[in-house]
Prior knowledge:
Elements: H1 9-17, H2 31-41, H3 47-67, E1 73-78, H4 86-94, E2 100-106, H5 109-122, E3 131-132, E4 150-155, H6 165-175, E5 184-190, H7 193-196, H8 200-205, H9 213-229, E6 238-245, E7 250-257, E8 261-265, E9 270-274, E10 279-286, H10 290-299, E11 304-309, E12 315-321
Parallel strand pairs: 1-2, 1-4, 2-3, 4-5
Antiparallel strand pairs: 5-12, 6-7, 7-10, 8-9, 11-12
The structure holds S-adenosylmethionine.
Amino acid sequence: MDTLVSPIAEVVRAGLSARKKTLPPWLFYDAAGSALFEQITSLPEYYLSTMERELLMNHASAVMDRCADSRNLDIYELGAGSARKTVHLLRAALARSGATQYHPMDISLDAMEGAVRHLALELPALPVRPEVTDFTRAVPAPGSRFADGRKLMLWLGSSAGNYEPAEAVRILRRVTASMNKGDCLLLGMDLAPEEGGKPMRDLMAAYEDAAGVTALFNKNLFVRLNRELGADFDLDSFEHEARWNAAASCIEMHLVSRREQRVRIDALEEKFHFDSGESVHTENSYKLSTERLKSLLCDAGFPLEIVWTDADHWYGLFLGEKS
Ligand SMILES: C[S@@+](CC[C@H](N)C(=O)[O-])C[C@H]1O[C@@H](n2cnc3c(N)ncnc32)[C@H](O)[C@@H]1O
C-alpha cells in the first residue's frame, strides 16, 4: 500500500472521486483560511456575526444566571475560532462569584493560538485550556474540570448549520455525553429566511460579498491542496458560487470549473477530470426554523429553555438544559 504524505490526502481522494465532487468544510481552516474567515466576520454583508455579537452582549448575564448562577463553571466551545464574540460571555462568567474555566476546541492550530493570545490580553484572569481537535471525531479531553460545578457547551457562529441536522445532533450527543442533568448548551444559529421574512438578497450577499473575501476563502481550499498535496489547481479557472437550495433550506458553496480540465495531485499520483460547469461542493449552511431547532436541541438531549433573537428574527441564540 502507498504511504500518503498528508493526513488530508485520503479525504481529498474520496471527495474528488465521487460522482458529485465534494470536499469537507473543515479543510477551509488552515492558517490562511482561519484569517480569511475572521475577515468575513467583519464584512458589512455578513450579518450573522454582527447579530450574534449583539445578542451575546445583550444576554450574556442572563445566560450565566440560567446556566451557572454562582456555581463553578466549565465553558466548552466547539469551533471557537478567534473566540472574539465569546469574550462577552466569558466576561459575564468571570463577573459571577463562582470560578470559570474556558475550554475552546478547534481544528485550526492558528485560530487557537490567536484566541489564546487575545484572551490573555482581554481577560488575563481567565484560565484557558485550548484543544486542537476535530470535534466530529473527538470528545472534549477529560481532566482539569471543576469536580463540583456546571458545564456549558457553546456552538456559535451558526457552525452547527454546516452539518446536515441529523449529523449535528450526532456530534452534539457525542461531545456532550459526559455532561450532567442541569448542564447547558448554547447554540447560535442563522434562522430560516421565511421565519422573519429575511430578504433573499441579504441572505445571498452574506455568501457573495462585494469585496470577494468569501470567494478567496472558498478558493483557499485549492491553494491549500496545491501547497500540501502538490496539486496544480489553476485558481482562475474555477469560480466561487453560492446557491440557495430551497428544498433543504440551505446555502451551498461551490467551486465551479470554467472549462473542461484535468487537475493533477502529486501526493495521490492521480489526475481528476472536470467538465466545464462541473462543481466541487465545499460547504453547506443550513438555515433552520425555530421549531426545527427546538426539536434538534431536544434530540441532542437539551430541551429548549430560552431563545433570544433580534427584533426581525434573522438570528437566534438557543439555550437548552440537559434533561
Ligand atoms: C464558521 S467558523 C466559526 C468560528 C467562531 N465560532 C465564530 O462564531 O466566529 C467555524 C470554526 O469551526 C472550526 N471547525 C470546523 N470544523 C471543525 C471540526 N471538525 N473540528 C474542530 N473545529 C472545526 C473552524 O476551524 C472554525 O474556526
